[in-house]
Inverse folding.
């Protein structure tokens, strides 16, 4: 049971890191489409690294539970 919970916690942490990476890239406009400025480049969202390390995304995602104003 402990191993199963550890695997679940790692999976949830990886999902949080991915979601926060994409959210931060959208907020900082790192994935704007070059042709249509109001659109988002979806292939960029799959490969973007909006912060230097994955643990920065995890830390931000854990500390900030409500959206910024």
């Amino acid at each position: 049971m402990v191993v199963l919970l550890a695997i679940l916690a790692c999976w949830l942490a990886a999902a949080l890191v991915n979601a926060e990476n994409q959210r931060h890239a959208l907020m900082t406009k790192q994935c704007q489409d070059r042709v249509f400025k109001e659109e988002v480049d979806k292939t960029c969202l799959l490969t973007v690294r909006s912060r230097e390390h994955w643990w920065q995304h995890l830390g931000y995602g854990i500390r900030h539970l409500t959206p910024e104003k």
Helices lie at 2-27, 42-47, 54-63. Residues 2-27 form the longest helix (26 residues).
